[in-house]
User: Which sequence fits this backbone?
């Protein structure tokens, strides 16, 4: 059988790095994982306990397509607690991770062939999901001067159907302040483009609170997930907030594409939202790890880095060290036993000269990884 042109998407390189690291571990090596954006902690204890109890009394069958009403209401309440935004729970859609939300949003908002702007560097799956849906991703080449975030002039006159923005961003960890986010929303709306805000790293901020697009406009799509701040990557549960007149559109698509998000994950997610002490203890680890990275990476020779305001990544310019970041990452894995992600995943045009380092794991791992990187770079000089 032939394959569709839509299926000709690029691999997610970080997953290839993960597999190479797994193979090295299977061969008996000890690998420090700085490649994947995954907390080293499990789901909060309260979430695990809630699910264990539910499994004894509930068949955990299908839920309604938009998600458990109690979870939708609790997510709406979160916007009041974090941002002072009053949100109708009817606008909240629970999804199969943020990935499910991207598929629903892109399907609901765009027609085949539409152009959607995404910042580069940026999360690589935006580009591949758009392509798989028959849409045209348009890379907006951001600059260090703009903290690797898009600005309105980057897409002026491009006739985009939509604009996708992330703050805190992956891979850079940089954030948009309220004025910068508002300028992007108003520019997109003025050009007739839908605005989608990826807020998956909200809650993981260090010196200022991230701004939600809902503080500025209701005519936006906001996507979030339990994967990062709530430490539930493998549970595959996220959410999005959409304008009131889009809810039924999303519901119909979700019914047919997904039926519903995983019931068990929704039970756990609801309980996770009240595990503040454990979640803040995780944040204490990220803060310490960030401090170590911002000191240790430059000392090792990775001194051209974007300042991470949130998330748990450091994005480094290594163009003075290599013109092949994929080969460089493989060399680091082989010789230092540290898995890092080549920038080609995030920026096809300039990523051959960049690497992303994740500091989501335990502090002892970060300390050991930095020591290995320093020895590797000393030997390379």
Assistant:
């Amino acid at each position: 059988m032939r394959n569709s042109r839509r299926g000709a998407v690029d691999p997610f390189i970080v997953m290839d790095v993960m597999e190479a690291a797994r193979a090295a571990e299977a061969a008996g090596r000890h690998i420090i994982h700085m490649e994947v954006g995954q907390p080293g902690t499990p789901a909060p204890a309260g979430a695990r306990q809630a699910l264990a109890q539910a499994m004894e009394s509930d068949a955990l069958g299908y839920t309604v397509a938009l998600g458990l009403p109690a979870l939708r209401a609790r997510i709406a309440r979160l916007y009041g607690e974090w941002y002072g935004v009053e949100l109708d729970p009817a606008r909240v859609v629970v999804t199969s991770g943020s990935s499910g939300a991207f598929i629903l949003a892109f399907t609901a908002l765009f027609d085949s062939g539409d152009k959607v702007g995404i910042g580069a560097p940026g999360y690589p799956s935006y580009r591949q999901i758009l392509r798989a849906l028959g849409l045209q991703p348009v890379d907006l080449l951001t600059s260090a001067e703009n903290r690797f975030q898009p600005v309105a002039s980057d897409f002026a006159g491009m006739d985009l159907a939509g604009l996708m923005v992330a703050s805190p961003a992956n891979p850079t960890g940089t954030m948009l302040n309220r004025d910068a986010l508002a300028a992007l929303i108003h520019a997109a709306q003025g050009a007739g483009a839908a605005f989608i805000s990826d807020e998956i790293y909200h809650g993981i901020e260090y010196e200022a609170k991230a701004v939600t697009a809902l503080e500025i406009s209701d005519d936006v799509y906001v996507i979030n997930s339990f994967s990062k701040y709530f430490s539930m990557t493998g549970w595959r549960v996220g959410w999005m907030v959409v304008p009131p007149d889009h809810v039924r559109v999303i519901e119909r698509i979700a019914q047919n594409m997904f039926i519903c998000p995983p019931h068990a994950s929704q039970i756990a997610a609801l309980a996770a939202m009240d595990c503040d002490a454990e979640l803040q203890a995780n944040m204490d680890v990220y803060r310490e790890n960030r401090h170590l990275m911002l000191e240790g990476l430059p000392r090792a020779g990775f001194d051209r880095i974007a300042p991470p305001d949130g998330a748990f990544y450091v994005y480094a310019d290594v163009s003075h060290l290599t013109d092949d970041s994929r080969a460089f990452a493989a060399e680091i894995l082989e010789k230092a036993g540290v898995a890092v992600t080549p920038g080609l995943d995030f920026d096809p045009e300039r990523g051959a000269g960049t690497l992303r380092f994740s500091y989501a794991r335990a502090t002892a791992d970060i300390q050991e990884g930095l020591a290995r990187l320093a020895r590797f770079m000393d030997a390379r000089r």
Remarks:
- The longest helix spans residues 276-300.
- The CA atoms of residues 93 and 270 lie 14 Å apart.
